[in-house]
Amino acid sequence: MKDAGVQYIFVVSDATGTTAEMVLRAALTQFEAARVVIERVPNVRSEEQVRDVVQKAARYHGFIVHTLVSADLRQVMLEEARQHNVDAVDLMGPLLTRLTSRLKVSPKAKPGLFHQLDEDYFRRVEAVEFTVKHDDGRNIETLKLADIVLVGVSRTSKTPLSMYLSFNGWRVANVPILLDVEPPKQLLELPPGRVVALTIDPDRLYDIRSARLQRISQGLPMGYADPVVIRREIRYAQRIFHAQGWPVVDVTRKSLEEIASEVLGVSVRRKN
Question: Whole-angstrom Cα distance, residue 82 to residue 51?
Answer without folding.
Answer: 12
